[in-house]
Structure formats: structure tokens, C-alpha cells
């Protein structure tokens, strides 16, 4: 065209420049522009826009700005699109502050920023994490009547969420909903997940409802997030409802919602429902993951079902699903709870052999296990190992160590350990100190407990209700009324109020000691403080009154319960039953027990009280009838029930009946305790059946029971009696 002295039209040139832009040949655009200018062709706004776009593509923002100034100087047409191209380029290059200046300039020049201008600026601010300013610009554009784009809303919501401003993100979504603008599903799901993880469950459910109302279709991730949220809150019925909804709506169901349900059921101790869920998962063709197996294994271990837990562990291994740190930790925890420390350490070794790294929780459960069995040496050895491996101990590590020392009468060592932790700037909380305070009080060292509590506060650890309750209990044991009221005043000054448990414990101690004036005085204080006595408080006072023989006052209190909102339970009535039996008033005791039976309040303990009362009076026939009657009522006798009647038979030298009852107890699967064995050994010895007595002693040892001094004394007396009889026969 140039050889023939023909010049292309502007629209031809614009089309050519746009094609070059499409293939990102920015250099050729600039070369062609120079030729256009040199050819005395006046570029139009479209050509200038293409040049600005090219300069931005080359990140030559200085020349891009100079181009606009040149256009202004030469009287070229300027519009908002041209500025938007420069603003977009600057924002893309994270030079958002320059972009904001350009926007302000175009407004000063009489041009109006449009929705693209504002959206570009907001997205640029999101890119440099300036979300608060992004919200301000968004507010400005809404006031001007512009509707933000989905990309803008999604960018701001996701940015606020990532910054931890979850509620700001939630409010933003609610605000733009009225304009019909929705974030994309990915952002919606992320916000939903963050709301759930931050405990904003009502907001999460509202967000889901709004999603449905606005026609945004939830996917499997949306449902999985909600189901997991319900499961964590123990709302398994709602979780199951949403799983059913997934099936009805044809949404693909994965292992994740099932994992949440199985974990939820296990946390509630409902292993049967968890197993049903697992079977349903398999029937639907889904493959269990390590999370599925770990949840079930943890559930079994928490309920003491170790055999099932290990069976599942071997099953997952056989299917090629590798156990992880959480799986091993769950099993180790189960073994520690069952006091099987040797097996727990073997599992820890296996874990290391498989290059699975134990975490803080793994060590914590092992340390707690050793402390529970009194082996603090190994527990502290694990603490050292834990630190060597770069793991950070916390209060969950320290608390069992402090408890282990205190439970073995070494509260002073526990105090030294806490002092060492304080010197190393390690955090020790009120739970750790509470254990120490209890340790000192248990050893009768209340003053040291009090000093430790003062030191605790000086170190910035606030006393809580539990710590005060421990100290109050210590003052009660030491009959130190002055310190007791001092502690109560201190609690009051710190804005703490004793709760039902604290008041009930104080009232119970005074009642048992027969100090009813003090007990009723505390009752009045409790009521004045707005702490309403519950059935446990009433029962504690009634128990003390009954034992002291003030049955009439106890009955008045019982009537007061009936007038109020509380309902007497089997323990409340048990106080009356026990006292009537001790007084030998069996007719009234039986009458009361029949009332309990009608109200379904009778239990093994109430039957045992009656049986003991009849046996004490030598009315063994009526005691035996009660034993048969409780079985007929669907209440199962325990070893105390059988032992009480067995002892009465033995005392009467009726070994045949005692042996018959003993065998009946064993046949019914009731395990005798040490006292039961001693009763039978006593019966055999006074009946001259020393060989049978020794057989019982052997059986006792086989069952893992230690023979005590009473057993030995009984056997020695039996042997002496038999020896005397043999001597007399000679």
C-alpha cells in the first residue's frame, strides 16, 4: 500500500494493532504507531488505547503516562477506557497507589470513573492485601450506583477471610446480596468453612440458606463442610438429614461426610451407629480412608474395646492403608488408659520403625499413662526425649507430671518442677496449679497450698473456681473457719462466685460432721448469692440429718424439694432407707422401698441397704427373698448383695448355703471382690474346712488379688482351730 502511495484507513490500522495485541507483539504495535505518526496520520482514540495497552504489557508505565500527557497536549480525545487500560496495567503490576492517583486525575479532568475503573482498583487492592481500603472503594462505588462484579466481591470476601476477618466477610456477602451479586462457589465454600471453624454456626447456616434462595447450587464440598460442622457439635440427626439430602439431589457423596459422621458418633460413644455408618459407606462403594479407620479406632479405644481397635488396625494394614501419627496415638492412648504400658511402648517403637513421627499428643498420652501407674521416672524420661526431638511440651504435658508427683506424696517435688518451668518461661496454667494445691492439701499441708496459690497469682496465673474449691475443701478439713471466710471474700472481690459444687461440698462436710448450724448458714448464703440448691445439695443435707437421727427435719427438707423444681432421686430416698435400716425399722424401710419400686427409683444399692438391714437383724430368710425379688424386678445383684447374705450364712456356720450362694454368684458372672473371698474363707475356717479355705485363697491370687492381713489372720485362726481339734481327738 505504501509503495502505491496508499494509506490504510484508521479502522484498518486499529484492527491490525488489536491483532498484534492478541498475540502480545507489543513491540510491533509501538513500531507501527511510530510509522502512523511519521506518515502524518492522526491516530484516533482506539489506536492510542492500543499503544497504552502495549506499554502496560511491557510494564513501561512511565511512557504510558507520558503518552496520555502527549495526547492531552496535542488535543487528542481522552476517555475513561483509555485511563482504565492504564489503571489495569498498574494494578496488575501491583502499583495500585499510582492507579488510584490516575483515577483521581481522570475525575479532576471531568471524566467519570465507571464500574470497570472501580472494580479494577478494588481487585488491585485485594492483590496487595489492602482489603479495608478495598471495602472503602467498594462502598464509594455502591453509593455512586455501580454494582460490583462477582470477581470483586469474591476477591474481597476471600481476602478478608484469609486475614481472619470472618465476620467482615460475612457482612459483606449479606450487603451485596441485595444487588443480586454472589461470590463464586469456591469463595462461598471457603467462607462457610471459616465460619464453622470459628464457631459462627448460626451465620454459616444462614449463609447456606441464602445460597439456596439465590439459586447458587451447593456442591459436595458445601455439604461436607456443613455435615462436619453438625457432627462436631453433636447434632448427628441434622448431619444425617443433610447426607440424605445429598443423595436426593443427586450430589456425589464422597468419604468425607461419612468420616465426619463416624467421628461424631464415636465422640458421643455411640459405636453401634458409627459401625452402621461404616457399613453403609462400604455398601455405597466408597473406600474408607485413614481418617475413617482412625476415627473408629479412637472410638473403640476410648470405650476400652481394644480388641476391636487392633482388629481394625490390622484390617487397614491388609488393605494397604497406612496408619498415621493420629492412628498410632489413638491406640497408644487406649493402651495407656487400660494400664498396658508395656504394650503402649512397643507400639511407640513400631511407630518409629515405620518412620512415623510421634507428635506432642503421642508423648502426652504416654507421659500420662506412666504417671497414672506411678512411674514418674519413665514419664520424665519421655519429657526429656520429647524436648530433644524438638517438640514443645505444654500444659497437657506438665499437668500429668505434676499429678504423678502429687499422687505419690511428692508435692514438694511438684512445686520445684513448677518453679523450674517458671524460670524457663514455660507456661503453667491454673489446671497445673490446681493439681499442686490438691497435692499439698491431700498431704495435710494446707499452709503450703495457700502460699502456692499466692505465688501463682504473683506469676500472672489467675485462680479459678476449681482452685478456690480445693483450698476451701482444705480449710474444711482443718476446721479453719477464719481462712474459709477469707477465701470466700477474696473470691467475691475477684468477681468469682462459688458454684453449686463448691457450696454443696461445704454443706456436705458440715453435715457429715454434725455441724448443722454452719451447714444451714452456708445454705442461706448460697441462696442469697443467687445460687439455687439442686437435688445434690438437698441430698447432702438430708444425708447428714438422717445419719444424725434428725429424720423429721430431713423429711421437711424432702417436702421442700417436692414443692420446688427439684425431684428427689434414688440417692435422696436412699438416705432415709439407710437410716431406717440401721435403726432396725424394717417395716417402714420396706414400705419406702416399695414406693421406690413403683417410681422406678429402686436399684441395686437400695436393695443392698434392705438386705443388710435384714441380715443385721438375723432375718436371713427375708434377705434371701429380697435377693430373688430384685432379679424378678429386673435389677441385678452385685458382689455386695451376695457377700452380705453369704457372710450371714457363714456367721451361722451354714457353709452349705453360703457355698451354694457363692456358686450362684459365679454362675451369673458376678465377680467377687477381696471382701467376698475373706467372708467365704472365714466361713470355711470356722466350719473346719481349711482345705477349701486354702483353695479359695489360691483362686483369689489367680484373679490378681493381693491377699491381705485379714485373709492371713483368718487362715491362721482356722489352722489353729483344726490343730486343736486334732490334738483333742488324739
UniProtKB/TrEMBL annotation:
PPR repeats: 44-78, 79-113, 114-148, 184-218, 219-253, 254-288, 289-323, 324-358, 359-393, 394-428, 429-463, 464-498, 499-533, 534-568, 603-637, 638-672, 673-707
Family matches, as InterPro entries: Mito_RNA_Proc_CCM1, PPR_rpt, TPR-like_helical_dom_sf
Gene Ontology molecular function terms on file: mRNA binding
CC per GO annotation: mitochondrion
Keyword Cell membrane: no
PROSITE patterns on file: PPR (PS51375)
Family annotation (Gene3D superfamilies): Tetratricopeptide repeat domain (1.25.40.10)
Keywords: Repeat
BP GO annotations: mitochondrion organization; RNA processing
Highest taxon in the source lineage: Eukaryota
Family statement drawn from the similarity comment of this UniProt entry: Belongs to the PPR family. P subfamily.
UniProt name for this protein: Pentacotripeptide-repeat region of PRORP domain-containing protein
Organism from which the protein derives: Jatropha curcas (Barbados nut)
